[in-house]
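Re-run with default settings, no changes from the original entry. Doing this only to confirm the output is reproducible before filing.
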Amino acid sequence: MKISHDHHSPVWLANRLARTSSGISILTLVVLITAFSVTRCHASADDSGSSDERANTLPQFVGGIITRSAELTYITEQDSEVFVFYRNTPVKELTGAVLLSLLRRPPGSSIQQESWSKFFQLRSINDPTGRWTILRQYLEANLTNVVVFRLPRDDPYGAQYDLFAVGLFSGNIVVGVQMFGVGT
């Protein structure tokens, strides 16, 4: 019986490659790529896991925010994507003046503090996917002193504003999400 070599089994191919030094190198490379791919796949699944998971490091936390805010939209007259915001400058507290300083805006700039729970409640009501709730739970599990700040833009853009839903990570790093809005 003659065996066709047009469609080789993986075991046959591995045995054949292992017979030469270049084959061993190729086989080793294939094994490493496969192992890395499987590990990365499981790591991605872990990133999107429980919405109340705690992040140990700032990069882990930022990555978790990116995953949970992907494809979220903050809806106003001009819709905005939701993206991660952080400043890796230690602060003692999170106030409007501190945020203005981190954003390098003049101390007298207009800034309004809004209710964290009301902000997320309004987003969650109109979100059948539950993604706003997942983002909120993740932020609350990793942040203290959570607050929402609205910073109106100067004229002639008076109806436009930047919105920051932020808190303190590890007690002294400002982290959260940022959006753009238009209100009349």
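The first strand starts at residue 73 and ends at 74. The chain has two domains: 10-47, 58-182.
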